[in-house]
Amino acid sequence: MLFFCLSLAEGQTMQDxxxxxxxxxxxxxxxxxxxxxxxxxxxxxLKEYQSSRxxxxxxxxxxxxxxxxxxxxxxxxxxxxxxxxxxxxxLGEYDALPGLSQQATPDKQPLxxxxxxxxCGHNLFGAASLGAAIAVKEWMQxxxxxxxxxxxxxxxxxxxxxxxxxxRAGLFNDLDACLDWHPDYQTKASTQSSQAVIDxxxxxxxxxxxxxxxPWNGRSALDGVESFVDGINLLREHVHPSVRIHYxxxxxxxxxxxxxxxxxxxxxxxxxxxxxxxxVSERMKDIAKGAALIAGxxxxxxxQNGIYDEIPNRRGAAVLQSNLEMLGxxxx
Length: 332
Known about the structure:
- The structure is a single chain.
- With 332 residues, this protein is an alpha+beta fold.
- The protein has helices at 2-8, 14-41, 49-61, 122-143, 162-168, 221-235, 274-295, 314-327; strands at residues 65-68, 77-83, 87-92, 147-153, 177-179, 196-205, 209-210, 244-251, 258-259, 262-271, 298-307.
- The longest helix is centred in the N-terminal third of the chain and has 28 residues, at 14-41.
- The two termini are 15 Å apart.
């Protein structure tokens, strides 16, 4: 967190950086408490009601103007301080993952077996990013520096990508720079990109029948799903090594003795660049059509979401790295 907010004040004197460091230290106990709360809430995508509230409330208490429920998402918010240019954005996340309930221990010890939990450190991401924005805000107050610092509370990173809808709503349009970070096994400023991804639902529509008395009158949507996933797994040999394809079968029928009339696959396609994702997506759509023909059912491919690969900012990363090196290694 500290190197992150120091970088927001890059170009200032060492005294300025020390002032920012003192602000971080002053809020450290509160920020750790926020992180612990978000860890315990463990709320999944678009259900982060408590997590987003505690962050927004704390930002408001520190003098930020908070707009809640932005971009049509109740758990998204924007906290702003200052006015005019430059406008610097800081991203924070706070959603958990299903089935990863975990005590604060290095080995697997669920708090509640099967319940959600934080697998990517978003409890840290949300609290520390807000702390960085607060520290810079206090530096601005102290020095009279002009500009705007804006903290974005972004929900649903683990699933539908809340930032996509915030971007569509124009919430990032006037930014001069936007900073984020993520817990990792290395402490460094990265110049790597992220993968592009598109998220689809593939629905198969058949005809129900009794599986014992007249299965010949049925058309199994589940047969369509099985043929589809067979095709997807055969496709893996013929895509670039950078491509990743993940799916789960989200609907496959209710009971064994009824031919399923509805079935569904949730599938994500990733690659290092969006053109690769789009190419594989066309192959996936053809496989869905072929699977439907095999099963004698109808197929429907629904685009749910898509996120482009991140464009690295090498100059910004160099500034972040220089502050990391100034602070030195983290002690655990």
